[in-house]
Design brief:
- By secondary structure, this protein is an all-beta fold.
- The protein folds into 2 domains: 234 residues, Tachylectin-2, Chain A (5 Propeller); 201 residues, Jelly Rolls, CATH 2.60.120.200.
- It has 1 helix and 40 strands.
- Strands 25, 27, 28, 30, 36, 37, 38 and 40 form an 8-stranded antiparallel beta sheet that branches.
- Strand 32 and strand 33 form a beta hairpin.
- The chain binds (Z)-L-Arabinonhydroximo-1,4-lactone.
- (Z)-L-Arabinonhydroximo-1,4-lactone binds next to strand 15 and strand 20.
């Protein structure tokens, strides 16, 4: 394989699952409280991925009303069987119903997916497997949502109805790491392989595997488990590597997709868990990942292929690019396209779990520039936010003031909130710019892009996952309107200039600050 750059999907694209149909690869990620849910990707070469929209695009498939941070959609699995695509996942908001896990399907990968069928099983990280006789099986964590120690549970299932067809049995409890989860079951060369994640999704994350001649076990743990981990690769720019899914190529080679994080410095990461790719070889009936070595940002020899991070939107189309994401289910009347994008405040704000008017794109690299142009009417405020959770966001807030438009920087980190005095610019329109750097965000505003005034800075440290409580997402650059404002956004752009690109692709190994 030619050289390529990891992550293959930079930014908040965690818990990757992959399948192949002929020469086409499809990949999905978890999406938590963001809508639409479960990003869907297509590739012909495993390196270049094109966004194909999302799997869960309707409220009947994905109800996120009141969703708090990092609830909603957990790890999905995508599989193709008999020409039909299936996606199985968990909406953790449905735990009180006793049926949080569900399957949707489609016969046309470009078309809409079905409404869910719900499964009478608690636990997370469901996956589907079809045996040679056509019987489908569910694997996932056990029934007790409080306990991860039960291991990986399996049962026969009807994937069209969600009906459970066999008793539930534990297949494997893992190699000894905490949180055995994220299982995928395969039959390869007549042997059943159960690959899972262990160690938790943080810095002790691992990929482990076991095999058996019989679906129900007993499963034998691979003698060189974990087959992939960076838990001791403390100098690597990639950390927390785990939660993998295997795929073969039409010519018989093997790869896995897995997620990892790129910390900005030791033990701090803010742009989310990102999808990585690794080559796999089979030795003595066991998979060996990347020759047993840690993964690199640049894999293989030569100049790596890497996607372009630049994106420019003038909101002149009738639909939005699939990268645009809402926070929870959108209220459609609050988003209007036509001669720009009009955002109308909802009853929620960036600080709560309500009907928040929010339209964001993932921050896919540490060094990027975001820019927008807006006009604001009415009371309240609108602007550009660097948003990680409702408790962790930095917002350039624009409001009408005597003499023009006022801009202030509001930085919220849990119960600390600092808002700068507004800088007032005469005129009706403002340009807002955020320069994202590894350690800080720089916020600027002004009447046009050529004359911007610094408004303030904010550290990336306080928007890092490690400053939060058990969160699974990453930073967005988001347009918003709240507290009664109506705002018209004329354009939005993400740029990565050559210097930023250089910094993004040659992240230093850690010189750990002591
Ligand atoms: C997911 C679990 C995990 O369900 O994190 O990293 C959880 N692995 O498998 C949320 O993404």
């Amino acid at each position: 394989m030619n050289a390529y750059q990891n992550p293959i999907l930079p930014g908040f694209y965690p818990d990757p699952s992959i399948c192949r149909a002929g020469e086409d690869y499809y990949l999905v990620n978890s999406s938590f409280e963001f809508f639409p849910g479960v990003p869907l990707w297509h590739s012909r070469d495993l390196v270049h991925w094109e966004r194909q929209g999302s799997v869960l695009t309707r409220k009947s498939q994905l109800d996120l009303v009141g969703a708090m941070t990092s609830v909603g959609i957990f790890a999905p699995t995508i599989r193709e069987h008999g020409g039909r695509f299936y996606m199985i996942t968990t909406n953790v908001l449905k735990f009180p119903t006793g049926r949080p896990n569900f399957i949707v399907h489609t016969d046309d990968i470009n078309g809409p997916w079905s409404d869910p069928v719900w499964i009478d099983h608690m636990g997370i990280d469901p996956s589907l497997f079809w045996d040679d006789d056509g019987q489908a099986y569910y694997v996932g964590t056990g029934d007790d949502p409080e306990s991860h120690s039960q291991g990986i549970v399996c049962f026969g299932i009807d994937p069209e109805t969600g009906e459970i067809r066999t008793e539930k049995r534990v297949l494997w409890t893992g190699s000894g790491g905490r949180c055995p989860e994220g299982p995928h079951l395969y039959k390869i060369h007549g042997t059943y392989y159960l690959m899972i994640a262990e160690g938790g999704t943080e810095y002790g994350h691992m990929v482990t595997i076991a095999r058996s001649d019989c679906l129900w076990g007993p499963y034998e743990s691979c003698p060189h488990n974990p087959i992939l981990t960076h838990r001791n690769a403390d100098q690597s720019p990639l950390q927390g590597v785990g939660h993998a899914d295997l795929v073969d190529t039409p010519d018989g080679r093997w790869f896995l997709v897995v997620h990892g994080v790129r910390p900005s410095r030791a033990q701090l990461h803010h742009i989310g868990r990102e999808t990585l790719l690794a080559p796999v070889e089979w030795v003595d009936g066991w998979p060996v990942v990347n020759g047993g070595r840690p993964l690199e940002l640049t894999m293989g020899e030569g100049e790596p292929a890497r996607g372009d991070m630049n994106f420019a939107e003038d909101f002149s189309g009738e639909t939005l690019d699939p990268r645009w994401t809402f926070l929870r289910n959108p209220v459609p009347e609050h988003y209007r396209l036509g001669g720009g994008l009009t955002l109308i405040s909802g009853s929620g704000t960036l600080d709560d779990y309500g009907e928040t008017t929010f339209l964001g794109v993932r921050q896919q690299q540490m060094e990027l520039t975001f820019e927008t142009e807006l006009m604001v009417e009415g009371p309240g405020e609108a602007g550009l936010s660097v948003f990680h959770t409702n408790e962790h966001h930095y917002d350039l807030c624009v409001s009408r003031q005597e003499g023009g438009l006022g801009v202030s920087l509001r930085r919220r980190a849990v119960d600390l909130c600092a808002q700068s005095q507004p800088v007032v610019f005469p005129g009706e329109q403002l340009v807002l710019r955020v320069i994202a750097r590894r350690g800080e965000y720089v916020f600027l505003a002004g009447p046009d892009a050529a004359s911007l005034t610094p408004i303030g800075t904010g550290s990336t440290q306080l928007l890092s996952t490690e400053a939060m409580r058990g969160t699974f997402t990453g930073c967005f650059a988001a347009l918003f309107a709240q507290h009664g404002a109506t705002a018209r956004f004329g354009r939005f752009s993400v740029t990565e200039d050559p210097e930023q690109r250089q910094l993004n692709t040659t992240l230093p190994a850690f010189a750990y600050p002591v």
